[in-house]
TrEMBL record:
Keywords associated with the record: Cell membrane, G-protein coupled receptor, Membrane, Olfaction, Receptor, Sensory transduction, Transducer, Transmembrane, Transmembrane helix
Entries under Pfam families matching the protein: 7tm_4
Keyword Transmembrane: yes
Name of the protein in question: Olfactory receptor
Cellular localization per UniProt: Cell membrane
Domain G-protein coupled receptors family 1 profile: 41-296
TM helices/strands, residue ranges: 25-48, 60-86, 92-118, 139-158, 204-226, 238-259, 279-298
Protein family (similarity comment): Belongs to the G-protein coupled receptor 1 family.
Protein's gene: LOC103599284
Length: 316
């Protein structure tokens, strides 16, 4: 009888900041400016890593992948957010929501693995410099990046499929900027235990394991650096790691706050996300991809030199 009275949902309504109409135009301007920085900054990094032979190394190959990933992730969510802020068009189709959810989960999972791969690359470069060309050969680092992308895609397919197969009835209002998976799961009128279990497993594989790789890699790196006799060598080793470590702290700080905190009250009894949660989501979705190229450019002499070379090239 309950199923007879249920109404199938064909689209969702994204609230965003609809409760604060006076600041929506301010957020539109900020997000648009940050999105332009994301496209330009990450685009320049990708071009520099391709056209400057000095950057044809594993670290910059991973950095190019990270920049491309940030462009893909923001392209799946930011334009629709900008449209909703300026035109008040807040509805998104069921299939559109699924696509947005897929890209968000795929890019987030892949970025976690890429950051772990980059930490391992720094570990080998600093702790085993003589074996570095053998361990991190071109075949190896391309395979590492491919595994990251493939694993992130598979994880996203599983999570998105399980979420979109749930029945959605009655309430179709998502109190969020985008089709974030936890906000969507709260609208399901069915048991979501399987979704919660698979998300816990996903968190362990794509959040905790890469973080462990990063932690132990930097423990060995720190031990090796402290044993160096040359102050110049220590400074150079620290400088090569500082940009990556800064990105890791920002990325994991926001993503753990969003996804690894207890979700029982969010998924069962609470109907509205707090404004602070939305802003944390905005920080993760827009500010972090914007900061990545800035951090790597400001704290890396090779990248700065490559960007200058790229900008000073004379057109043929």
């Amino acid at each position: 009888m309950d199923k007879i009275n249920q109404t199938s949902v064909s689209e969702f309504l994204l609230l965003g900041l609809s409760g604060y109409p006076k600041i929506e135009i301010i957020y539109f301007a900020f997000i648009l400016a940050m999105y332009l920085v994301i496209l330009i900054g990450n685009g320049v990094l990708i071009m520099a890593s391709i056209f400057d032979s000095r950057l044809h190394t594993p670290m910059y190959f991973f950095l190019g992948n990270l920049s491309f990933l940030d462009i893909c992730y923001t392209a799946s969510s930011v334009p629709s957010t900008l449209v909703s802020l300026i035109s008040k068009k807040r509805n998104i189709s069921f299939s559109g929501c699924a696509v947005q959810m897929f890209f968000g989960f795929a890019m987030g999972s892949t970025e976690c693995l890429l950051l772990g791969m980059m930490a391992f690359d720094r570990y080998v470069a600093i702790c085993n410099p003589l074996r570095y060309p053998i361990i991190m050969s071109k075949v190896v680092y391309i395979l590492m990046a491919s595994v990251s992308w493939f694993s992130g895609g598979i994880n996203s397919i599983v999570q998105t499929s399980l979420a979109m197969q749930l029945p959605f009835c009655g309430n179709n209002i998502i109190n969020h900027f985008t089709c974030e998976i936890l906000a969507v799961l709260k609208l399901a009128c069915a048991d979501i235990s399987l979704n919660i279990i698979t998300m816990v497993i996903s968190n362990m594989v794509f959040l905790v394991l890469p973080l462990l790789v990063i932690f132990f890699s930097y423990m060995f790196i720190l031990y090796t650096i402290l044993r160096m006799n040359s102050a110049t060598g220590r400074h150079k080793a620290f400088s090569t790691c500082s940009a990556h470590l800064t990105v890791v702290i920002i990325f994991y700080g926001t993503i753990f706050f969003m996804y690894a905190k207890p979700k029982s009250q969010d998924l069962i009894g609470q109907d509205k996300l707090q404004t602070s949660d939305k802003l944390i989501s905005l920080f993760y979705g827009v500010v972090t991809p914007m900061l990545n190229p800035i951090i790597y450019s400001l704290r890396n002499k090779d990248v700065k030199a490559a960007v200058k070379y790229l900008l000073n090239r004379k057109p043929i």
